[in-house]
Write a structure and sequence with these properties.
14 helices, 29 strands, about 20% strand, globular
Length: about 575
């Protein structure tokens, strides 16, 4: 047995585990503490209450003088995130190789929060000049509710050291693969940093593989995938720090349409842009498909709650004089939800909007000439996006990339038109403009000049109550798309740029952190976002949780705002 202040060698740990063999499961609680394991330190931070409960939380720390990672491999945040992604992948592979069933419930489980296709800063692995740390979960073995001490000794004293030796020592890793990870990440960040200077919102490299295997498998399609080809007129070249000269398609600021027939790759291209706010692992196919890091996917979201959002730029003159400058509803329609989603994205700092007509409200996107004749403007409260999209760009500098397949009226307002044919893009701007001249739509523009920035909203503390019954704090996530906050359930199904359930866990912690530290009835929502993200940048994701957890991944302020705005108990007031 040990305490956090004692550092016994591995033999006492094994001896202690053998000694509690057959005892009540609670005997495991006495093992919490730190253990010197001949080359690394094992921390048992939390012991599960029974074999069916959430697994125990453990950490290992390997001194850097033993781990041996070159300082250049983690010299900046881009490289460090990539290296940690590689190490988490290696650690997870070794866990899968060694874990086995050792009793009831989760007994014998050993796992780490492993990455998918994106490179995200995570709490599962940390590296600096002093150490490499891995945080992982273990199901301490039991039969029923009796300790299986000898099996636990094999797990903690044999399997864990074997995993550490294989996964967390540079000499045992693939040095060339580490170089690929860190160089690809650094190149992608460099590309993203060049977008504004080049007047672009996105870039897709030649030969990228954009299609995915399925709707539930984000790995690249292997059979039949057509490598991306670049139209000559949209060709842009960059000289990357590691990959050198890379050519591809640049998508300029302004209003861009992605058109084409069904199943020809429109939505596939847009999906790549959605994920282009993140870096990707080697061989993902989208390593150099990058997008404005603030880009936000907008869709209709029937039934969501909206609290105090100024949607008057899109929707006004509602029946019964209902105010749309601070619009509230518990059951938004497709059009009102899409309008609110846009305004909330602007409030959270989005400079690029990504929209697919397949997931948009038709009456929010357009009113054609015939409908304008049937329903007069003074009887239609909705000003469709087609009549506001240019004002968004010209007044606020906010670009829009829009997938369209059924409305050529958007040709009138587009700066660039890209047509996808058999997954191959071609520029068709001049053709689309000629069609617009030769075949005028006859519809009347219903928009007005200019687009005002969204006014500040100030969240009120009473609207963020994390308690539930006798529980003072009940905040947690369920999977990728659900957060439980107090008595409320936040539905994130329409927040499509959440890509990892670890981001959702971190979001749930961030909501509580914001409530405890910054939601005071005086700060604006945007200021609260800035402060939370500032703290994470300064102190890491650990700032969000008093515990040392290994299952959080970084999110963007846009997703944090989306979660807050979908909290049904949210209350706001307008800034004075």
């Amino acid at each position: 047995m040990s305490s956090a202040n004692k550092m016994p060698d591995p033999n006492p740990l094994r001896t202690a585990l053998h000694a509690i063999d057959g005892r009540s499961y609670k005997a495991y609680k006495d093992l919490r503490g730190a253990y010197d394991c001949n080359g690394f330190t094992l921390h048992i931070d939390h012991v599960q209450g029974d074999p069916f409960a959430a697994p125990s939380r453990l950490r290992v720390e390997v001194p850097q003088d033993r781990a041996g990672y070159p300082s250049g491999s983690y010299a900046n945040s881009s490289r460090a995130s990539a290296l940690c992604t590689y190490l988490a992948t290696q650690f997870a592979a070794q866990c899968r190789r060694l874990r086995g069933k050792r009793g009831s419930g989760k007994s014998g489980l050993i796992e780490i929060d492993a990455p998918g296709q994106e490179i995200l800063p995570r709490t599962s692995i940390h590296i600096d000049a002093a150490r490499v740390e891995a945080r992982f979960a273990v199901g301490l073995p039991a039969q029923g509710r009796r300790v299986l001490g000898r099996q636990a000794a094999e797990l903690l004293c044999d399997d864990v050291p074997a995993i550490v030796a294989s996964a967390l020592h540079y000499a045992q890793n693939d040095a060339a693969e580490i170089d690929r990870y860190v160089q690809i990440a650094e190149d992608a960040d460099f590309l993203r940093s060049q977008l504004v200077e080049c007047g672009l919102v996105a870039f897709v490299a030649e030969q990228s593989v954009l299609p995915r295997r399925s709707g539930v498998d984000e790995r690249p399609l292997e059979d039949g995938a057509i490598p991306f080809q670049t139209p000559d007129s949209l060709r842009v070249e960059f000289d990357l720090p590691h990959a050198g000269a890379v050519a591809g398609m640049g998508i300029s600021r302004g209003v861009t349409l992605i058109a084409g027939g069904g199943f020809h790759g429109k939505s596939t291209l847009l999906a790549a842009l959605e994920r282009g706010v993140y870096n990707h692992i080697p061989d993902d196919g989208r390593e150099f498909a990058v997008c404005d890091p603030t880009a936000f996917k907008i869709r209709a979201e029937d039934g969501r709650r909206v609290e105090g959002v100024d949607i008057s730029s899109f929707i006004d003159n509602l029946p019964h004089g209902r105010d749309t400058r601070a619009f509230c509803t518990d059951n938004a329609s497709g059009s009102t939800s899409q309008a609110a989603n846009i305004v909330e994205a602007l409030e959270a700092g989005a400079q690029t909007l990504l929209i697919d007509e397949d997931t948009a409200a038709t009456n929010f996107m357009i009113r054609d000439h015939r409908m304008q004749l049937l329903v007069a403007k003074d009887r239609e409260p909705i000003t469709p996006l087609i009549d506001r999209v240019r004002a968004l760009y010209e007044s606020l500098g906010v670009s829009t990339v829009l997938v369209v397949g059924g409305s050529g009226d958007y040709f009138d307002v587009a700066d660039t038109v890209i047509v996808m044919e058999d997954y191959i893009p071609r520029e068709a701007t001049s053709t689309a403009k000629a069609i617009a001249i030769d075949h005028p739509s006859r519809r009347q523009c219903e928009g007005r000049d200019g687009f005002d920035p969204p006014p500040d909203r100030i969240p009120l503390p009473q609207g963020l109550d994390p308690s539930r019954g006798r529980r003072g704090v009940n905040v947690k996530s369920r999977g990728l798309r659900t957060v439980l906050f107090g008595a409320e359930t936040i539905d994130l199904a329409a927040v499509e740029q959440l890509v990892d359930s670890s981001q959702t866990r971190a979001l749930s912690a961030a909501l509580l952190y914001a409530r405890e530290n910054y939601v005071d009835g005086q700060r604006s929502l945007r200021k609260i976002l800035d402060l939370v993200m500032r703290d994470i940048a300064a102190c890491g994701l650990d700032v969000l949780d008093r515990r040392l957890v290994g299952d959080h991944a970084l999110f963007r302020p846009q997703e944090l705002a989306a979660a807050l705005n979908r909290l049904r108990s949210l209350q706001v007031r307008a800034a004075s």
